[in-house]
């Protein structure tokens, strides 16, 4: 029974508890039997006062404005970058360790950026900043695969195109996709609905996620390079990406072309990836034997398929990865960070 | 007035006249005022006898089975690869010149594979085989852009991920996407509708188009390599692709990363691409200034955006291209081949 009367179990707070990531974090706490001594659900004034059930017990949602973190051991922040920028330092100052799902502190040198399957060793002690950052949702599955490739073949460069789901923009993204699709089904010439996404995502693909930077790349594309370098501890790693939103409700996909230092044997590569923790390789011979967002299966695993070495360059190969962006890309990774901290006695 | 009483204008036949490509070919003949002396619409027994209007005149659809091409100067085939394999040789034997939209003859050495903006010079005389092949719908926009890049900077390699629309699979693809989306909107757990696509394309992306080859690539991916080499006359060109179907009704998109022999100046690249015939570069500074399938604009142009040179490698750049697969990728290219043949006096 995860809510325990045990002073060694942490007191937790979920900021953004009513959002897609927060709601999934609650589900995962239930599914995985994460042990906690007390739980506080926190959101904006919009949701404050609502009752949310965790393991059959009702909890009243607190307003972040005025919330006191001095009785919180670990706070999960999933309420957007600007909320984290303002509130994470206050929570830390009040004594909480923060696991932050936003991009606010990811590149801060005093803050470890952690994917437990890759760099759990950075969780041996409480970080100097009091914050552990959770990487971007497209970066997490990629680095989990790249680690194995780097160790065996060395990565010269990776070229990645993403196929990112609406849920990456939270509940408003999911709702807008559904509503837009309904509108365009009725009137094919309708521009659709466009508030969260621009233009509407209904029956369209949008090659632009997050803000545009001076060099023409988007912030989302830059995150994939910078965060991968930091997580893997490879400051010169060469990854370049195009990040594209597609009309899928949930789960991001990526087509990654990876050129190595050494020739890659396909069978060995398949075995190396299949041996990774919580990774499923879809490699049956028939056409159809590849993961897709809706059919991949277990949402707590990274799904890989279409592994193929190019004929023109035996050092290069393609893979296709599908991962639940809300679980693998956010809530599950955050909870696995907490589990690793508990295991190491840091929490 | 395109239907002309002029013995120099060709007598044309459209095989597959009732399909997505055939219907669009009729529209383009009307829009562009293509001059012909007689027109025959041909399809299967399913549509034979139907009346189809061309420029306000009703034409009865003929059954391909038993159709006589001896009074046809040029026959456009858009009825699938197996129909072309059987019927194109018969049409040629009966004296017609064939412009074939399928993959049946594209790699035949006696058959030119033509994108008029790239290799119209191959249309100076009637080909030995009596056939001119129209390339794959993802290949056409790409080679139109690559020609300029090769000539100025030299292409070392290109890595391309596609975002291909349902219309690439004809009317049944479009209908199935719409029906599947409607089904999944009502019941999010429904597997959707899956006959043309597998699994259903509704709210999903499918990293597999056309049949799988022994090396793990699909035929669609191989076409992009082999056809580009043939059209550009660059037998060692290194292009590798992942071809993905996305829940878009019409217009394919491609994210292409291109590494050159020489460093690329972005402004010069933008100018070079913008100077190409029937290409629009979307390059305004604001976020949102990129083409998407539903918003790109003029369907008779290739739309390019997100042009950016990578920081880590100044010889490499990305671009995002959107092109109407039915027009640019099939019907318009085929008609432009015919126009070029007329201009050169071959037809
Ligand atoms: N979705 C993903 O795949 C994903 C992946 C990685 C990281 N993230 C990050 O996780 C965060 C949340 O994403 P989401 O998808 O869960 O978004 P969401 O569904 O829109 O939920 C947002 C949550 O933040 C709360 N919130 C918003 N403004 C607030 C404020 N001023 N003060 C307190 N709480 C506030 C909302 O509470 P109310 O109910 O009161 O509005 C809600 O609980 C974002 O920073 C996002 O970048 C998301
Ligand atoms: N859609 C694209 O983006 C695209 C791009 C490049 C190339 N192509 C190629 O163009 C061809 C047609 O594609 P589409 O998208 O127009 O398909 P579609 O909408 O399914 O239309 C198929 C057409 O072929 C006819 N047809 C089918 N089987 C036939 C047979 N046994 N004998 C005579 N006619 C037959 C159909 O006639 P009925 O009405 O009698 O069934 C219909 O006119 C395909 O080979 C495709 O590979 C398509």
TrEMBL record, chains A, B:
<keyword id="KW-0457">Lysine biosynthesis</keyword>
<feature type="binding site">
    <location>
        <position position="164"/>
    </location>
    <ligand>
        <name>substrate</name>
    </ligand>
</feature>
<dbReference type="InterPro" id="IPR012280">
    <property type="entry name" value="Semialdhyde_DH_dimer_dom"/>
</dbReference>
<feature type="binding site">
    <location>
        <position position="325"/>
    </location>
    <ligand>
        <name>NADP(+)</name>
    </ligand>
</feature>
<dbReference type="InterPro" id="IPR000534">
    <property type="entry name" value="Semialdehyde_DH_NAD-bd"/>
</dbReference>
<dbReference type="InterPro" id="IPR012080">
    <property type="entry name" value="Asp_semialdehyde_DH"/>
</dbReference>
<feature type="binding site">
    <location>
        <begin position="46"/>
        <end position="47"/>
    </location>
    <ligand>
        <name>NADP(+)</name>
    </ligand>
</feature>
<keyword id="KW-0791">Threonine biosynthesis</keyword>
<dbReference type="Pfam" id="PF01118">
    <property type="entry name" value="Semialdhyde_dh"/>
</dbReference>
<feature type="binding site">
    <location>
        <begin position="18"/>
        <end position="21"/>
    </location>
    <ligand>
        <name>NADP(+)</name>
    </ligand>
</feature>
<keyword id="KW-0028">Amino-acid biosynthesis</keyword>
<keyword id="KW-0521">NADP</keyword>
<feature type="domain" description="Semialdehyde dehydrogenase NAD-binding">
    <location>
        <begin position="11"/>
        <end position="126"/>
    </location>
</feature>
<feature type="active site" description="Acyl-thioester intermediate">
    <location>
        <position position="137"/>
    </location>
</feature>
<dbReference type="Pfam" id="PF02774">
    <property type="entry name" value="Semialdhyde_dhC"/>
</dbReference>
<comment type="pathway">
    <text>Amino-acid biosynthesis; L-threonine biosynthesis; L-threonine from L-aspartate: step 2/5.</text>
</comment>
<dbReference type="InterPro" id="IPR005986">
    <property type="entry name" value="Asp_semialdehyde_DH_beta"/>
</dbReference>
<feature type="transmembrane region" description="Helical">
    <location>
        <begin position="12"/>
        <end position="29"/>
    </location>
</feature>
<keyword id="KW-0486">Methionine biosynthesis</keyword>
<keyword id="KW-0812">Transmembrane</keyword>
<feature type="binding site">
    <location>
        <position position="106"/>
    </location>
    <ligand>
        <name>phosphate</name>
    </ligand>
</feature>
<feature type="active site" description="Proton acceptor">
    <location>
        <position position="252"/>
    </location>
</feature>
<feature type="binding site">
    <location>
        <begin position="167"/>
        <end position="168"/>
    </location>
    <ligand>
        <name>NADP(+)</name>
    </ligand>
</feature>
<comment type="pathway">
    <text>Amino-acid biosynthesis; L-methionine biosynthesis via de novo pathway; L-homoserine from L-aspartate: step 2/3.</text>
</comment>
<keyword id="KW-1133">Transmembrane helix</keyword>
<dbReference type="InterPro" id="IPR036291">
    <property type="entry name" value="NAD(P)-bd_dom_sf"/>
</dbReference>
<keyword id="KW-0472">Membrane</keyword>
<protein>
    <recommendedName>
        <fullName>Aspartate-semialdehyde dehydrogenase</fullName>
        <ecNumber>1.2.1.11</ecNumber>
    </recommendedName>
</protein>
<comment type="similarity">
    <text>Belongs to the aspartate-semialdehyde dehydrogenase family.</text>
</comment>
<comment type="function">
    <text>Catalyzes the NADPH-dependent formation of L-aspartate-semialdehyde (L-ASA) by the reductive dephosphorylation of L-aspartyl-4-phosphate.</text>
</comment>
<comment type="subunit">
    <text>Homodimer.</text>
</comment>
<keyword id="KW-0220">Diaminopimelate biosynthesis</keyword>
<keyword id="KW-0560">Oxidoreductase</keyword>
<feature type="binding site">
    <location>
        <position position="245"/>
    </location>
    <ligand>
        <name>substrate</name>
    </ligand>
</feature>
